[in-house]
Amino acid sequence: MQVNAYGAHAGNQPLEPLSITRRSPGAHDVQIEIAFCGVCHSDLHQVRSEWEGTQYPCVPGHEIVGRVTAVGAHVSAFKAGDLVGIGCIVDSCQHCDDCEAGLENYCDGMVGTYNSPTPDAPGWTQGGYSQAIVVHERYVLRIRHPEAQLAAVAPLLCAGITTYSPLRHWGAGPGKKVGVVGIGGLGHMGIKLAHAMGAHVVAFTTSESKREAALQLGADEVVVSRDAQQMAAHTKSFDFILNTVAAPHDLDAFLVLLKRDGGMTLVGAPATPHPSPNVFNLIMKRRTLAGSMIGGIPETQEMLDFCAQHGIVADIEMVDVKNIEAAYDRMLRGDVKYRFVIDSASLAG
Ligand code: NAP
Ligand code: ZN
């Protein structure tokens, strides 16, 4: 099947209309008509070749929601008409320890929704800035939110799970003081989720202008991270800090805010490394510095169900795919509250 898509032919060229091929559904496949696709900062890193190894043409997009249009003969969990989501993973080896633990995100054979090897043409996966996608049933998520919220559910498929997974893993909850650094697509979800989990949430932002909005999102306190005095007031007080910043910055400024045995987890993936942190800021209080990548499929379903139960969706601004370059530029300036979502109807014609 040929479908309309939007992608780039090189890192220094703008995205443009493309026609791409989707395979016919195999026995275990689900074919999905894409309704909306969120715009993740990773899309920009990848399509503009800020990370190594981008294959062109590159069609980004891994915050996909839509409706099932066909299923293979052996698919029983989904049927035509179901509302579903696809996140960052469309395949994995299915038998390693990680896959067996439902942590397909850490499988060495994980196939990302775009820019990963696949037998399908053209040899690498192409993502959700497109009208349809065909995915093995194991990687298809069920959406239980009301259909009217569908566009705002899209960002949960990456921004939601990437923040939910470390918050759960490191025990965000009642009695815990949790920081979320960077109030962008990921960070605003981190604030909502940590708040819903019952933690005391402190939002860190470089932009004073985001203070009121961060409180609305569920933050109990807001700290402007460029203000040394505001930072010092929180020294040695955090159980956990989730750092979503998309650019290299001084990690020590946050490490010193952790109490004994506290930890900071990095999910931001800047194109160039952070300055090396001072090891004494780790050893003096037995602090840890960790990383985390999206989440496995069972946990992604758990996160979607948690969000449906708690009435959580992303704060979004709809964008016509033809304006994607302007949206990227605004995302780089931090000028979006807080996630652009492409209306796939704008791919027609
Ligand atoms: P985003 O919407 O652009 O948000 C990033 C936020 O970081 C900005 O809103 C800004 O918040 C802050 N920031 C940006 N530049 C900064 C700078 N120079 N210094 C300090 N703060 C800065 O991006 P996103 O979609 O949330 O993605 C964030 C990062 O996570 C990206 O690198 C992305 O590739 C990565 N990511 C990782 C995973 C994973 O599995 N680990 C998954 C998805 C995305 P303030 O204005 O509040 O300061
Ligand atoms: Zn993403």
What does this structure look like?
This protein starts with a strand and ends in a 6-residue tail after the last strand. The chain has 11 helices and 17 strands. The model has no long low-confidence stretch (mean pLDDT 98). It has 349 residues and is of the alpha/beta class. The relative contact order is 0.16. It folds into 2 domains: 2-158 and 295-304 and 313-347, Medium-chain alcohol dehydrogenases, catalytic domain (Quinone Oxidoreductase, Chain A, domain 1, Alpha-Beta Complex); 160-291, Rossmann fold, CATH 3.40.50.720. The strands form 4 sheets. Strands 3, 4, 5, 8, 9, 16 and 17 form a 7-stranded mixed sheet that branches. NADP nicotinamide-adenine-dinucleotide phosphate binds next to helix 1 and helix 5.
Bound molecules: NADP nicotinamide-adenine-dinucleotide phosphate, zinc ion
Which architecture of the largest domain per CATH?
Alpha-Beta Complex
Largest sheet: 7 strands, mixed
Class by helix and strand content? Answer: alpha/beta
Termini separation (Å)?
16 Å
CATH topology of the largest domain: Quinone Oxidoreductase, Chain A, domain 1
Mean pLDDT over all positions: 98
Report Rg. Answer: 20 Å
CATH homology group of the largest domain: Medium-chain alcohol dehydrogenases, catalytic domain
* N-to-C order of helices and strands: EEEHEEEHEEEHHEHEHEHEHEHEHEHE
Q: How many distinct helices? A: 11
As a percent range, the share of helical residues equals 10-25%
Number of domains: 2
Work out the strand percent.
25-35%
Number of strands: 17
